[in-house]
Amino acid sequence: MPFRCAVLDDFQSVATTVADWSPLDGRVEVVSFTEHFTDEGELADALAEFDCVVTLRERVPFPASLLDRLPRLKLLIASGMRNTVIDHAAARANGVTVCGTESSSTPPVELTWALLLGLARGLVEESNALRGGGPWQSTLGADLHGRRLGLLGLGKIGSRVARVGLAFGMQVCAWSQNLDKERADEVGVRLAGSKEELLAGSDFVSVHLALSDRTRGLLGPAEIALLKPTAYLVNTSRAAIVDQDALLSALHRGRIAGAAVDVHDSEPLPADHPFRTAPRLLATPHLGYVTRANYERYYGQAVENIEAFLKGSPLRELGTKRDGS
To answer: Which listed residue (267, 296, 307, 317) is catalytic?
Structure first.
């Protein structure tokens, strides 16, 4: 029986072409799925005859209830070196090795600025109007130079976003629960005295925090109410950090100038989701990591992981003491 590998959520049908899978020829049968599975039972049925699964980011949860239904599964590969929706204890109990791949922070930094600039200059509205015979110039762009950019989080991604803001001539400040002045000084930004100060004083706020018990719902109704009516909010991190109902309310009421989101509480976004029709919202389908270079890395290293597993020496294992899980 051949070793079979399933590639999930290959939306663009590129997983087997952006990387060289030829080292597995004759040993591994690769099948990619372009449609997302929303039902665990359907997913379990689809994966029942596979020895290996390659999953994209944290798109598909692998709880114990699913892993228990996949007795043939021996190798689970996640893109990235951190995955919070895989039950690592259940994987170990079922004899499943979990491996990851490297992931670049450059694409989400670049997308953050694409969204922020798109908001500031009304690019979607102006482009749609021009192509649809609408008014010539209907928006008044927001300036970046001299304005304040507030960053929630100053880690690998946040610090690079900060440096771009400084290059635009913005006043950049940052806050997080663990951020200190030494780190802020290292990046060249001001440490905000509190989350509330950052929100109330910023013209643009961008979220760059990992999702945890401390950050879930960090921006709720009270926090969003602190934003200026002329302020813009950008979230390319995790949807659950921002209260979605509170954000929608602020957008519909015109309480803030606008928001841009690349992350959602349900992905892919359902056809009737209110984010699809909300005013003052620039929304993208979780494109933060979706670039050719990142996909070459994800799937190229997935091939390496499969090769190493077949040789009995797994690479980049997750859910072990070595990776802190």
So the answer is: 267
